[in-house]
Amino acid sequence: MSYTLIGTAVSLYTGKARGYLRWKNVPFREQLSTAQTYKSVILPRVGWPVVPVLIHHDGSEHGTVVQDTTEIIDYVEAHEAGPSVYPDGAVQKLAALILELFGDEWLVIPAMHYRWAYNRDFAQAEFGATSFPDLSPDEQKAAVQKSVDFFSGALPVLGICPESVPAVEGAFEAFLAAFEAHLEQHAFLFGSRPSIGDYGFLGPLYAHLLRDPASGEIMERLAPRVADWARRAHAPQHALTGDFLENDELPPTLMPMLEMFAAQQLPVLFDTAEALAEWSGTNPDAVELPRIFGFNKAMIGHGDIRVETDRAIIPYPLWMLQRVTDHLASLEGDDRKRAEEMLRSIGAAKLIGFQLPVRLARENFKLVRG
């Protein structure tokens, strides 16, 4: 095998990477991220406990390690032949980058809420079986109790609290309705080939929200086409096949989801950029960014069901936003004009000409100044 993917079925981001590797049709094996694997492989090579981790067996002594799912996909795209998950069309690619960001860093809110509100026992059993496969089921659940308490206790970081739950669930149901309507006409977001945007959606929608039983029942009932899409995107039957829509077309059914990004996530990203500027000014010599800058108020929800809640200021999504603004800045002529028209149409005109106050990069598996 050319690659080893270290992760687990219960992991949101492992699901994203696994689905991509299957479609890309690269030879890989999966190594379960047990407690022993963390101790012997992940911590020595990455430096902190995280999955998924991809090891490319490229002939070097220990292979090349890649950690972040976006970096995993970009690494494999650069090293393997075949069709790409990045559309060639300027506007399609812009929309795909936006939707990857929306999936990775905003749909994680309902993914975490439904897991710990509706699927806690299932998730704890899964974590236990992954981490300590040699123990009995009761011993497994006891052994991961502290980890489960940590993950479920982190919901306020995402703005999830009793007061915001109706807004979280209302926004998720509105998203499901929009995606369901799109899938009536298209197999994936941009045609018959999965894109980087599809894989941004796949982590939360498959690994948490479909696979976890209680939320899976909700998805099957409210949005059966979305459930079918998640299964297909995670385990495609025809690797490397499909096409993006011709002439850089954005289907009208995609617009409601792009509008959700602009209305829900983009204001939080702009607030985070302001916090980044403040942090940079008070920490001029710091290289590595903290995981959070603190807490502030953020709006969560959709339409008339919106709630202001305390939420952590998380800088990582700005690195993904930088991918969006870098692509936009690279466009010229008609491509630039059409991209700006699309942003205006979804309520994201503030992105035109926007640049982060500090350029960001990922080095040694951490977020740093670029």
Strand-helix topology:
Layout: E1 3-7, H1 12-24, E2 28-32, H2 35-46, E3 53-56, E4 64-66, H3 69-79, H4 90-105, H5 108-118, H6 120-131, H7 137-143, H8 145-153, H9 165-183, H10 196-210, H11 213-222, H12 224-234, H13 255-282, E5 295-302, E6 305-312, H14 316-330, H15 333-345, E7 360-363, E8 366-369
Parallel strand pairs: 1-2
Antiparallel strand pairs: 1-3, 3-4, 5-6, 7-8
Helix pairs in contact: 1-3, 1-10, 4-10, 4-13, 4-14, 5-10, 6-7, 9-12, 10-12, 11-12
Task: Please characterize this protein's 3D structure.
The mean pLDDT is about 95. About 55% of the residues lie in helices and about 10% in strands. Strand 7 (about 360-365) and strand 8 form a beta hairpin. The strands form three sheets. Strands 2-1-3-4 form a four-stranded mixed β-sheet, with helices on both faces. It contains 15 helices and eight strands. With about 375 residues, the chain is an alpha+beta fold. The chain has a domain at about 5-80: Glutaredoxin (3-Layer(aba) Sandwich), CATH 3.40.30.10. Helix 6 (about 120-130) crosses helix 7 (about 135-145).
Shape type: globular
* Cα radius of gyration in angstroms: 20 Å
Low-pLDDT regions: none
Sketch the major β-sheet.
4 strands, mixed
Termini gap: 34 Å
Oligomer: single chain
Q: How much helix is in the residues?
A: 40-55%
Fourth-level CATH superfamily of the domain at 3-79:
Glutaredoxin
Q: Give me the strand/helix succession.
A: EHEHEEHHHHHHHHHHHEEHHEE
Mean pLDDT: 97
Structural class: alpha+beta
Classified by CATH, the class of the domain at 3-79 is Alpha Beta
By CATH, the architecture of the domain at 3-79 is named 3-Layer(aba) Sandwich
Q: Strand tally, please? A: 8
- Proportion of strand residues: 5-15%
What name does the CATH topology of the domain at 3-79 carry?
Glutaredoxin
Please list the strands of the largest sheet in the order they lie side by side.
2-1-3-4
Number of continuous helical runs: 15
